[in-house]
Amino acid sequence: MFSGEVARHRPVLVNGIPGHMSWRPDGNPLSVIAFTVAEERIIAIHIVIDPVKLAAIHLPDPV
Q1: Engineering a disulfide at 44: which of 18, 36, 50, 55 sits with its beta carbon 3.0 to 4.6 angstroms away?
Q2: What is Dmax (Cα atoms) for the chain?
Q3: Across the chain, what does the average pLDDT equal?
């Protein structure tokens, strides 16, 4: 996740949850960070970097 190969990143909704997405220079997903929010506070942070799991999530294209 911190390999320095991020080409693009931006805030996104991941399955309706606020998060942050980053892509490799070739356009493939690098990581997703999703925040579970309750009562205006972040109560959980979910980080996905596994390429197989990333492929199973409906993700936006890099812009």
Answers
A1: 36
A2: 38
A3: 84
